[in-house]
Amino acid sequence: MLRGKFGPTVTSQGKRSGWDTISQTINASFPLVVRTGDDCEKRWYVLQSKAKDEIAAHKRESSLTGGGPPAKRLSQVADTVFQVLGHSEVSVTGLPTGIDTSMMQALEMQQR
């Protein structure tokens, strides 16, 4: 719902309700800092943007030829965003619904 395109079943009210539910869950777990649905939504998009930048940099480093140290591992936040969005959502080049095979190979090598 939160990432879906607007339509008959995905409305701005539904998305707002989803973010409010997330903020209530976070506030119940961490009551010292109260967050609104808007705060949570903004934070998610900031994290997502930074993670996509990190994934793109990791992809560039992984595709370099020659010697040298291996590419740094993705941070836990970037890896989590990658897992949430899926392979097709973090592609920074090519078709928007395509799978970035070089990124998948880099992640598989990282896991080994």
TrEMBL record:
It comes from Phoxinus phoxinus. GO terms for cellular component: nucleus. This is Nuclear apoptosis-inducing factor 1. It comes from the Eukaryota.
